[in-house]
Specification:
By secondary structure, the protein is an alpha/beta fold. The protein has helices at 10-22, 33-42, 63-69, 86-92, 105-119, 152-162, 171-178, 189-203; strands at residues 2-6, 26-30, 47-51, 53-54, 57-58, 74-79, 97-100, 127-129, 132-135, 140-143, 146-147, 168-170, 208-213, 217-222. It is built from eight helices and 14 strands. Helix 6 (152-162) packs across helix 8.
Length: 226
């Protein structure tokens, strides 16, 4: 599933491309509206992340041209403009969503996935790391092409970590995703669950590791030896 990133700030491009690549998307970055229109003529992108203020003008002015080129593309505007009426102007001009900077990376990914789901065109691609392939839509995990079965809470934990590859998963977020609301949880339950998952991944030669980031949470990365 192809995404066009239209952004002229290198740090933001690296952040967006890294997160979306980890989530299984195929991303092309460009730094101007002119280059974006050229790319849109060549490739059938499914979604565009569009910075509003670009070297060649306000991207909102180009939305009618974009819609003529690719009527079905999903457009998510990223902008530091958050004055009254800015979001309405962007949405009324043809954008599907409008997110202000600075933005939460998890929220951005959730919005991308939500917009692609509404298109009804394609299923989400599997997320991969090391020898692992995680198909969230089908609820399946494969390691080296073989099914990898986990207990319910292990699966919830692994899924949460997979959706944040190379980024810290805060303890609070993991607790919410793994354990039900109002459920009695013993101290250290999450740490015990992580230890069990680590062992299962190592035994299966998954090629990825879960690291503790003290005071913050856990981090899933590719194994250095894989």
């Amino acid at each position: 599933m192809k995404i066009l990133i239209v952004e002229d700030e290198p740090d933001i491009v690296r952040l967006l491309a890294g997160q979306l690549d980890n989530a299984g998307f195929d991303c092309d970055p460009v730094g101007s509206m002119s280059d974006a229109l050229t790319s849109l003529k060549r490739y059938p992108y499914h979604l565009m992340l569009l910075d509003r203020r670009l070297p060649d003008g306000d991207s909102i002015a180009f939305l009618p041209n974009i819609r003529r080129l690719r009527p079905n593309i999903r457009i998510l505007i990223l902008s530091a403009h958050c004055e009254k009426g800015d979001k309405a102007k962007g949405l009324n001009s043809g954008a599907d969503d409008y997110l202000t900077k600075p933005f939460d990376s998890d929220e951005l990914l959730a919005r991308v996935i939500a917009r692609l789901r509404t298109s009804g065109e394609l299923q989400m691609p599997p997320i991969t790391i090391g020898a692992v392939s995680f198909d969230a839509a089908a609820g399946q995990i494969f390691i080296g092409g073989r099914p990898f079965l986990l207990h319910r809470r292990e699966y919830a934990l692994f899924g949460a970590l997979m959706r944040r590859i190379n980024r810290v998963s805060p303890r609070e977020a993991l607790m919410e995703e793994v354990y039900g609301a109002g459920e009695a949880i013993l101290p250290g339950a999450l740490d015990t669950l992580v230890s069990r998952l680590r062992k299962r991944l190592a035994d299966a030669e998954a090629g990825c590791e879960v690291h503790l980031v003290r005071g913050r949470g856990y981090l899933l990365t590719k194994s250095l030896t894989s």
